[in-house]
Specification:
single chain, mainly alpha, two-stranded antiparallel sheet, two-stranded antiparallel ribbon, glycerone-phosphate O-acyltransferase activity, GPAT/DAPAT, transmembrane, membrane, Phospholipid/glycerol acyltransferase domain-containing protein
Length: 358
């Protein structure tokens, strides 16, 4: 309780000085893609400061949505979107009449805004459906709509459209959601059994991505020396934090933080050790400088190279399976086509129903 009071008093102090501060209103982070229940503390601090100063501070709450492409991976993308400001002075009369109801109302407004501003999923029960659609249908839908696959705004827009559609079906026609869940489960099980990716079964997506095997092979051959250098100078401090986290840390939400902490220590020590060896062998500041400058770029290149070679290896593996087990591949393709037909009908029904409701 004392810590809460201290936080509130500090908030009042900042606002009275015309300052600003950031609050994460969920109050907890579980590393999930579902927005947790928003706490009332943000609104209570704002109103508390206004009441102390007779509503003269003009306190404004601005919802900010943070959407991560990967919650635990560094160098992944994050989209920041700002919502409409909420001016607490506009609610002065309501607050004086019923403090509890007004605080609850504005907190719900914040929660609604954050759901619109993020690619979070409203409820846990449809999470698997939305993520399945993102895997097998989102890029096809973006292509159909004439959107850019690499445009983060377009990607966000389509994710929200898919989420809203699934939520609509969950409310209006849950039986259809159950049907799709079963079809999706069967299809993903087949993919998992053969360890192949959905994108290899979608010719339109492959064409749009411009897969060029010759260019990839040339890149892998030409880039191999730099990749080898990047592995020698970066792999041990890159790998060790991941092994430690795997052995000693169970919570996904803490993974990125622990990676950063362990990584900073291991990279500093490993880089320092390497620089020391180069100095000992050459006694030449020029070579030490060249070595030092090469460390981070070669590490980044090695990471990109490894992703490219993994993707190419998976593609080659798919071709091998295709020629060896054609009947199974054709079965999977038929499953996918059935799902696509199901989704097309569901999309048409959803658009028609939403237009009628509007």
């Amino acid at each position: 309780m004392d810590k809460n009071l201290d936080s509130f008093e500090k908030g009042y102090e900042i606002l009275e000085k015309n300052g600003a501060f950031l609050i994460f209103p969920e109050g907890i982070s579980k590393g999930k893609r579902v927005l947790e229940k928003i706490k009332t503390g943000t609104v209570r601090i704002g109103f508390g400061a206004e009441v102390k100063n007779n509503f003269s501070l003009n306190v404004v709450i601005i919802p900010i949505g943070l959407s991560y492409s990967d919650l635990v991976r560094f160098r992944s993308n994050v989209m920041v979107r700002f919502g409409n400001p909420i001016n607490l002075a506009d609610f002065e009369e309501e607050y004086r009449n019923d403090q509890f109801a007004t605080v609850r109302k504005i907190t719900e407004n914040i929660e609604t805004a954050l759901n619109k501003l993020t690619n979070y999923i409203p409820t846990e029960e449809i999470k698997d459906i939305v993520e399945g659609l993102e895997l097998i249908y989102k890029m096809e839908l973006m292509t159909e709509m004439g959107l850019e696959l690499d445009n983060k705004k377009d990607d966000f827009l389509v994710t929200k459209m898919l989420t809203n559609a699934v939520k609509w079906y969950q409310d209006k026609n849950p039986e259809k959601v159950t049907q799709f869940r079963e079809k999706l489960k069967n299809y993903l099980t087949l993919l998992k059994e053969l360890n192949i990716r959905d994108e290899f079964l979608d010719p339109a997506r492959q064409k749009k991505r411009g897969w060029n095997r010759t260019k990839t092979i040339l890149f892998l051959i030409a880039g191999f020396p730099l990749f080898t250098w990047g592995i020698l100078t970066n792999y041990p401090p890159y790998k060790l934090p991941r092994l430690i986290i795997k052995w000693f840390h169970d919570f996904q939400v803490e993974e990125a933080s622990w990676k950063m902490m362990y990584g900073m220590v291991f990279f500093i020590v490993y880089y320092g050790f390497g620089i020391g060896i180069v100095w000992y062998l050459t006694r030449d500041l020029l070579w030490v400088g060249i070595f030092t400058i090469s460390l981070i770029p070669s590490g980044n290149f090695a990471l990109y190279y490894s992703k490219s070679i993994n993707k190419y290896r998976q593609h080659v593996k798919f071709l091998s399976i295709f020629y060896q087990k054609r009947s199974i591949i054709f079965q999977i393709i038929e499953e996918r086509m059935t799902i696509m037909r199901f989704l097309k009908n569901a999309k048409d029904e959803y658009i028609e129903s939403v237009q009628l409701e509007a």
